[in-house]
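Input record (one chain):
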Amino acid sequence: MSTSASLERPRPAATWAVLDPRSFARIRALLFIAALLPLVRLVVLGLDTRLGANPVEFVQRSLGTWSLAMLCATLTITPLRRLTGWTWLVRLRRMAGLFCFFYVALHLSTYVVLDQWFDWAAIWKDVLKRPFITAGFAAFVALVPLAATSTDAMQRRLGGRRWRRLHQLVYPIAAAAILHFWWHKAGKHDYVEPAIYGAVIAVLLLARVVARLRRGAIKPA
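The corresponding structure, as predicted from the sequence alone:
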């Protein structure tokens, strides 16, 4: 009888492979709250006047860093799903991508509103003359259609193939984001953080290339 019970007991891997709706909703809610914590931290620090000698720069850099972190989280989902077989992870990708756009939009807004005070001539001059701002602005512009077409309705309207082709923009967006960060840090010869994020994104993109090559290798002749 004990042997039968042990055979019927589900394995932990199988439990994680297929989540019931309630468990998935809990995980999604926890991740949603976790994704908001960086913004909550900035608000708390601001209310407590602990944003440092240059609050605008502190907020801009924090939001930029978390934009990259959210981009890495979004790009991690597909390789992690392939590695673990947890198909439900794909259902978190939209939320992660929208949080990435959210933090990028806040990052850009602090530059436009708090740094430049809506001086559009100065902003446009920066976009044209300063390479790191050019790269960052290009990444934001490319993110807009991805955020706008993230809904199921837009996916149906575009069709699966065109929707997937459009969302492959995330790869040049990732490259532009790293260039933005790298060139920004180059002024202070501080390449450690950009190199770390660049390495993480490179590994995540390489994982996709390897997966595609393997799929091509197993196709019948």
